[in-house]
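Below is how a single chain appears once it has passed through the pipeline. First comes the sequence as given, then the structure the pipeline wrote out for it. We keep one example in the README because the format questions we get most often are answered faster by looking than by reading.
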Amino acid sequence: MDTRMTKRRNFSDKFKAAVALEALHGDKTVQEIAAKRQLHPTQVSTWKRQAIEGMAGVSSDKVKKAENKDCAI
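Resulting structure:
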């Protein structure tokens, strides 16, 4: 086993959300955010994409709930 291997870092959901929101805001590039936060740019892009998909899920969940309410009447 290589003794130079680094330990995998774990990030809180709050940290991931903050990074994703910063990326969504658009003031800085993904590369700038990654450098500032000491992350790989791919990680920032992944969290940004997941945030976008999560927001789309929230909207579709509201539509599904409304449709289910209409069907229950």
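The chain has one domain: 13-72.

See the next section for the split statistics.
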